[in-house]
C-alpha cells in the first residue's frame, strides 16, 4: 500500500490495551489521509450526544498523506475530536514534528480512547508503544514538560498540554514542539483523559510508489516556491505581513472587541510616522526582534519569525510568532499596540496551553463588559480590565489557565460560556459562532467570509474555506470580480473553497501554499506517492465527501440552519469608521447567502445533507443515518 502503512494504532487509556488494526482498504482512495481519515473515523467511532470530556470521546490523530514524504509544506497533522467548546465537530491542525514521526513509526492513524485514572504519557518508538506514569509532568507548562521530555527521551517529538488543558479549559490547546493544535479545545480532551503528552520517534521510511518521480516533483515545486513573491513576504514578515493593508486599506482588522473594523490608534500613527513605527506591525518588529526561524517540517517558505524579547516589564523570553491571528487577538482586539506585551501574551498562552485567538477575544469581551459597568471590579478580581491595559490582560490570562478567582472561573471556557455566566446583556457583544471565537477578519466588510464563518463546521473559522484572500483581493485562481461588500453569489464560492481546502487538510499541505499548488499540482504528487491516478475532478469529490461527513457529524449532534448564524454585533452593528464604514451582515442577507450555499451543496433548506447527495458521494450509511428527503 504505497504512501500508507495500512495501520491504525489504538490506545485505550481505561484498560491500558494497545493494539494495531488494519486501515480499511477503501480509505486511501475515498479519504486520502489527514482530515479525510480523521473525519470518517470520528463519525464512525464517537456516537452522538457523548460528553466531549467523557471517556467515550476520542482523540484521533491523522498525519496528512504528504507528511514525511519530502513534499514541500506537506507538514500538517490533524487532531480530530468532538469539540468541548462547540459540542460538535472538532479539528485542529498543526505542522507537527510528532505527526511526521508517527508516520515514520509506521502508523497512518493514532486513536486514543478511554480515560486514565492517573496522569500518563504515551510513548511511541516504532513498534514499541507504552504508557508511562506522568505524575512528575502534571502541573508543568508546555515548555517545562517539553524540556523534561527531551532530557528523558532524546530524539523524540512531543505533544503536550499545559495547565489549561489539565484544568479542562474549553479553549485549551495541544503544543507540538512549539506548534499548536489549538482550536476547539483539544487540550481539554487530553486533560479529561489524564494524558499529559505524547512522545514519538520513528525510524522507518514511508513506502513511495515512484521515488524517482517524487524526487523530480519535489525539486520542481521547490523552484516554484523559491521564485514566488508570496514566499519572500512570508519569510521576511510572517503571516502578519498584510496587517497594515487589512487595517488601513480594507478596514477589516477587528479592534476593541469588534466595535471597530480598524485599529484607529495604529491607523492614525501610521499616517503620521509610517507603518514601520506601528508596534504590532511585523515591518516594525520582525527586523528588530527576530533571531531565527523554526519552520514546520519540510517547509519551503517558512513564515516562522522566532523572536527574542528582553523586556524591562516582562523579562527575557523567546517565542515563535506572533502570527497574524495573535497580533489581532492579543493586539488589535484588546487595543494593545506594544509589541513586547503582545509577544509576552503569546508566549504565556503557549506555555499555559491556551488558544491565543479564543483567549484574546474572551478577554476583549471582559474588557468591554468592565468598561460598560456590567462586570464589576470585584468580579474582575480587582483588575482594571480596560482596553489597552496589557498588565491586566496578562493577569487575566494566567487566571483563565488555572480557573483562579472569580475572573478565571468566568473566562476559562471562552466567550460564550462567560457571557452566559455573567448575563446582564453581555451576550449581545459576545462574539462567537457555535461557541468558537472568530479569527482576525471583520466579516461585516467581507461578506463571503461572513457566510464562511456562519456555516463552518467547527465554528467561526477562516481556514475551513480559506476564502478570505479571494474576497479581499477580489480574485484568486479561477475566481474573478469578487466583491467583498456584496452578499450575492457567495454560496458556490464558499462551498467550492471548502471542498478544495479539505484536500489541503487531507494531504497535510499548508494553506499558505495554495497560491502555488492550487488544485492542479496535486494529482501528480498523489500518484507519485501512492500510485493512485486521481484526477482533479475526483480530488474535488473527495473534498466534498469530507465536508459532508463533517456536516453529518454536526447534524447528528442536533445542529442545523439555526446554528449557521452570526454574532449580534456582526448582524446589527455596522462598522462605524474607516474604509469599510457602514458595512454589516443583516439577518436577511445572511439568510439569502445560506439559501445559496445549501443549494450549492445539494442540502435541504434546513442545511441537512440530502440522501441523494450522500448516496452520490458513496456514503450510504450516513445517508441512512441523517440524510434529508427532498
UniProtKB/TrEMBL annotation:
PANTHER family: ALDEHYDE FERREDOXIN OXIDOREDUCTASE (PTHR30038), TUNGSTEN-CONTAINING ALDEHYDE FERREDOXIN OXIDOREDUCTASE (PTHR30038:SF0). Its EC number is 1.2.7.5. It holds the Pfam family AFOR_N. Keywords: 4Fe-4S, Iron, Iron-sulfur, Metal-binding, Oxidoreductase, Tungsten. Its cofactor is tungstopterin; [4Fe-4S] cluster. One of its GO terms (molecular function) is electron transfer activity. This is Tungsten-containing aldehyde ferredoxin oxidoreductase (Aor). SUPFAM superfamilies: Aldehyde ferredoxin oxidoreductase, C-terminal domains, Aldehyde ferredoxin oxidoreductase, N-terminal domain. Belongs to the AOR/FOR family. Residues 4-204 form the Aldehyde ferredoxin oxidoreductase N-terminal domain.
